[in-house]
């Protein structure tokens, strides 16, 4: 079958990466996964295969290993572009282990850009984050919102990576075109419940902690602070369904392949509205019928009180709009959790 070409997906067995691989395939591209399985599991490949009824090639290497990257690009031959997901992503862990985050998150991008340049691959979609905005002065945040001092080393790695891409574009000597997608909080799972968020050990994100608590894997859920300046006192985030987010990456790839944009562009990818932690909990209880055991705790270091996106630019210039809401995201996350239990694949 003729495809639109090969797209390398680093971190392609991860949560967002696996969903992007599915959507890339559906859009006619040939995804090539690179993943060292530090934060993911081989079972994600089985899930992708079950959804697509096709095998997706996977290279089990570390993206900070430039020689291994060269080997992949040499072996694959003609590559149309790259989506770079591979990164550590836990805010709290990054506060405790900053060097681990700088080495992996920044080092992998530098190695990747060097190899892309060597092999004349010049289209890159970079997985950035709303954490680049720090604690914003105004909401919602637009792409013109000042990038402030990051609230965590994780957020700073995303800022540094964006700076690297901007410097590359300004250098005048690079042919690489890049789109940095600043996305908000992905939730949910594929409607098949064959792929989803599978944290190794204790989850760092709210929704898998909710689903694991409802399943009885965790004793209780802690709400980190209800004394923020928000309507109910808990943190507010912009929760985007992971399938919508995956489709945004395909739209970005299309834009690059069609040579439509500037040498570097930034887009917020979110729903354009915020939901509080307590609102997410109550919505989960409503759509699943599961009662959650949760307690109120103290604030967590590195957490931003509230942030949500202005999505005008991504709507107008990318032509991207979310189609799924909070209820669909939470229901699909629960379906995935149930499927994990039934297949004995849950990690604790």
Automatic annotation (TrEMBL):
Keyword NAD (UniProt): yes
The biological process GO terms on file are: galactose metabolic process
What would you give as a GO molecular function for this chain, any one?
UDP-glucose 4-epimerase activity
Record's subunit section? Homodimer.
Q: Which family does it belong to?
A: Belongs to the NAD(P)-dependent epimerase/dehydratase family.
Any one GO CC term of this protein is: cytosol
The protein's name is UDP-glucose 4-epimerase
**Record EC number:** 5.1.3.2
Q: Which cofactor does it need?
A: NAD(+)
Keywords linked to the UniProt accession: Carbohydrate metabolism, Isomerase, NAD
Which SUPFAM superfamilies does this one have? NAD(P)-binding Rossmann-fold domains
The reaction(s) catalysed by this protein are: UDP-alpha-D-glucose = UDP-alpha-D-galactose
User: Part of which pathway?
Assistant: Carbohydrate metabolism; galactose metabolism
Known Gene3D superfamilies for this protein?
A: NAD(P)-binding Rossmann-like Domain, UDP-galactose 4-epimerase, domain 1
Family annotation (Pfam families) = GDP_Man_Dehyd
């Amino acid at each position: 079958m003729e495809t639109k070409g090969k797209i390398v997906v680093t971190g392609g067995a991860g949560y967002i990466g696996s969903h992007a691989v599915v959507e890339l395939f559906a859009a006619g591209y040939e995804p090539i996964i690179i993943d060292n399985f530090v934060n993911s599991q081989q079972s994600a490949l089985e899930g992708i295969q079950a959804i697509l009824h096709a095998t997706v090639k996977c290279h089990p290497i570390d993206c900070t290993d430039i020689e291994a990257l060269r080997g992949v690009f040499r072996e694959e031959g003609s590559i149309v572009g790259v989506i770079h997901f591979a990164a550590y992503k836990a805010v709290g862990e990054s506060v405790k282990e900053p060097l681990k985050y700088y080495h992996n998150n920044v080092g992998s991008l530098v190695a990747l850009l060097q190899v892309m340049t060597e092999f004349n691959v010049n289209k890159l979609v970079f997985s950035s984050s709303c954490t680049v905005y720090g604690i914003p002065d105004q909401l919602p945040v637009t792409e013109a919102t000042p990038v402030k001092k990051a609230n965590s080393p994780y957020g700073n790695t995303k800022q540094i990576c964006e700076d690297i891409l901007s410097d590359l574009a300004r250098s005048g000597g690079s042919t690489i075109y890049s789109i940095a997608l600043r996305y908000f909080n992905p939730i949910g799972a594929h409607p098949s419940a064959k792929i989803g968020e599978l944290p190794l050990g204790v989850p760092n994100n709210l929704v898998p902690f909710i689903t694991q608590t409802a399943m009885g894997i965790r004793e209780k859920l802690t709400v980190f602070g209800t004394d923020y300046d928000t309507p109910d006192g808990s943190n507010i985030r912009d929760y985007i369904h992971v399938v919508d987010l995956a489709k945004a990456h395909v739209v970005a790839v299309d834009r690059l392949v069609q040579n439509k944009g500037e040498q570097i562009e930034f887009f917020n990818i979110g729903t354009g509205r915020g939901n509080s932690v307590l609102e997410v909990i109550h919505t989960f209880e409503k759509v699943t019928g599961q009662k959650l055991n949760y307690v109120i705790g103290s604030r967590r270091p590195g957490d931003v009180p509230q942030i949500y996106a202005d999505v005008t630019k991504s709507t107008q210039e990318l032509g991207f709009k979310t189609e799924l809401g909070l209820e669909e995201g939470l229901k699909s996350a629960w379906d995935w959790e149930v499927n994990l239990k039934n297949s004995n694949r849950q990690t604790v």
